[in-house]
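User: Hi! I'm a student and our assignment asks us to look at how structure tokens line up with a sequence. Could you show me two examples?

Assistant: Happy to help. In each example below, the sequence comes first and the structure tokens follow. Example one:
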Amino acid sequence: MHKLRGHHLICLHFFKAHGLDNEFQEALRRILSSISEVEVVEGIDEICEVCDYNTGVCGYSENSEEKIGELDRFALQKLGLKTGTMIKWIELKPKIYEMIEEWKDFACKNCEWRGACDV
């Protein structure tokens, strides 16, 4: 079972790896190829663990940990999930498509990682 934080539950569904370094791309592909069930976690998850910006918290930019926490909370609220929830990966897809327009407005329009997805 994979452990993922809130916004990764959504973003991984649209992952295309454009513009990411090869090691990070391969790690994400390995996760995606073996994912069937997910435990929702708070903070650093399996994707964060392989990210170069991981310093125990997100070191991508100033205030990034705070911004990502906001994305996580919004994602979980819209998906109707809580930390500790176990959910099948396939059960997430319909939930995501129900809220994707709100997600795009809230998260995608200013996302610096847009090149890595096809939202």
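Example two works the same way, sequence first and then tokens:
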Amino acid sequence: MDLRLRSRKAESATVVEVGGEVELHSAGQLRDELVRAGASDNPCVVVDLSRVTFIDSTGLGVLVGALKSVRERGALSLVCPQRSVRRVLEITGLTQVFPIFNTLEDAVASCIKLTAPNGAASSGGADGAETGDANGATGVQTASAKSMRAPATGMGGANG
């Protein structure tokens, strides 16, 4: 449906603000914007999902692809205060891959720290995910994602 994108600089980061629905028909636009952001002079890319109302597997794939591309020379962080979008990231296990923050300020600060000359940009998303959520939500997300998977294995198929 409707996807809104805007890129801007914030300190030494490129912020890509995303709004609306990220789905099969609009994901290409987001991919193109993230490629441009990753090619900028800033090694730090922050994707602000604050105004995203829906994201499907195609959109998630675009984010993962951007992370793989950007982390070769920098870092990528997500801002995701929306409970519904964060829940999708939790269920898919992507909270273990991306550093996720509730505020843009926290995401930019962490991303810049990761890309500092003696930072840990080359370590990828897993290390950032543990330290990334300044609100301590990462541990809760991990437990929540695991508890979501556990009942599903016994509910259907030949085992259930």
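Here is something you could point out in your write-up. Strands lie at 3-10, 13-22, 44-55, 75-79, 100-101.
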